[in-house]
């Protein structure tokens, strides 16, 4: 890769770049949280060890920061946030009121569920929203995400790395899933969240958020929506059309404007990625999103034929 892997964790020619630079990620992120909440122990782990009840939108932004850093930052930055996350998880426990047992938050089963719910949501939403990715590219994306899973403490060989493996994983997990009170509350929070302090200026526009939250909910698998039963069903075609309209609108927002949705540290990290890639010969005049066009890559990395 001509040394570009020493500049960013996932270079612009990877399938991960195509998915993670797409603005449909906002829908995929919330969908992922809703899906994760169906695992009782994983949900209680979040509930007992975070401020999710007070700031669910903040959880989404912190997740966006982690995903951004293990995608667009330097390998050193990715390693650092991985060590930080593993250190935090190592100290946390979750109490299971049904058995009275205490479990480690970094239990591999819980980490794997969170990972799979997250990355499958990103991929499913992006493809359904109109991002043109072949099945082979989707397999590559999931294979690349095995590396990302190591930052939270998983082993690559234990993580589904293809569409078929991911389907088999969810089929095997479904008997273990159910809606507990915390799960139901999570969906309600995500449909109508409290705004974090630095975004309180958006509070007057909060009613406009509900359609977004509903869109995230409706992109869940049918079996998951049946388990929740929070909103009445609508035609699949309607959801797909709404998702495509959202993606088109969000992808038209200038990168400098869009990045204000992130935490300050994330914005600094993205600015650093642009600087490093520009120094490596990439044309970053259209921002990081512009690098989905191979014509903006250094000549030695452009596809031939």
From TrEMBL:
<protein>
    <submittedName>
        <fullName>Oxygenase MpaB family protein</fullName>
    </submittedName>
</protein>
<feature type="domain" description="ER-bound oxygenase mpaB/mpaB'/Rubber oxygenase catalytic">
    <location>
        <begin position="17"/>
        <end position="247"/>
    </location>
</feature>
<dbReference type="Pfam" id="PF09995">
    <property type="entry name" value="MPAB_Lcp_cat"/>
</dbReference>
<dbReference type="InterPro" id="IPR018713">
    <property type="entry name" value="MPAB/Lcp_cat_dom"/>
</dbReference>
